[in-house]
Sequence to fold (314 residues):
Amino acid sequence: FLLAGTGVARAEFPEKPITLLVPFAAGGPSDKIARELAESLRKRLDKTVIVENLGGAGGTLGAAKVATASPDGYTLLIHHIGFATAPTLYRKLPYKGIDDFAYLGLINEAPSTLIGRNSLPAKNFAELRRWIAADPTKVNLAHAGVGSASQLCGLMIQSALKAEMTSVPYKGTGPAMTDLMGGTVDLMCEQATNAVPQIEGGKVRAFAVTSKDRMKHPVLASLPTLAESGLPDFSVTVWHGLYAPKNTPGPVLAKLNEALRGALKDPELIKRQEALGITVVSDARVEPAAHKKFVEAEVARWAKVIQAAGAYAD
Ligand code: MLT
Fold:
């Protein structure tokens, strides 16, 4: 350190590797997006960015680990709409809530898809709807735990169909996808990030997209929206954001936000995300105050959906 007159100059952050915690198992959409981002942040910060997976309880275990980590900028959380639903869903949340975090910016938005095992006796959504209606409890619906994007989307589909299916929870939709391809589970609402390669490879059957409008993406363009398939106003888009523990020093947050903004302008990263049906957010949304405001609005919006469904975690 150099004594800079008024005191010791802080060593330039970052001076050691950064951990990017993914609150779901490896192989899922959150993990895929995190590894893309980690590579781009490494280039900008010139330090290793280690991706660590900690699944469980719909992402709340991973979020809690970051909420209670030392606020030095070396432990970050990537998370999606589950970050905004946990405070309503979990009465015993292992952290205080969205104010336990510093906001580094939104990252992207991805539609979800309704996909099923190839051996299902339904070829399209109309046939699937009839098959489910025959006996909803025999339908095994995979998801990544209460509060995960897959579970919330599944909840909305069940409410819209007035059909309560059997839930099969996993630590992430990565492992869930393996069982769906193996045919040991029936259905899943999965983000395009993870679904597009499997639909393209013919490993799962796609029934619909959950976005308000049809997707332009070549693999998704032929899929109807759930809204046009008889579930009026159905619309689920999964957004991801980046967080640090609250009380992380301002200059550190500014450095991380600058690196995130740079990463999300990387044409290679944008191209790879768009190839999976993902849209990187505009620069104005990669801004802490806008990010926090968006999350607060999402907390309120999803609270209504959860309270209407009475779908609280135990
Ligand atoms: C994952 O990465 O496993 C997903 O984000 C889980 C989910 O939220 O459905």
About this structure: The mean pLDDT is 94. Residues 288-309 form the longest helix (22 residues). The first strand starts at residue 18 and ends at 22. The pocket of D-malate is lined by residues 24, 28-31, 80, 82, 144, 148-150, 172-174 (CB under 6 Å).
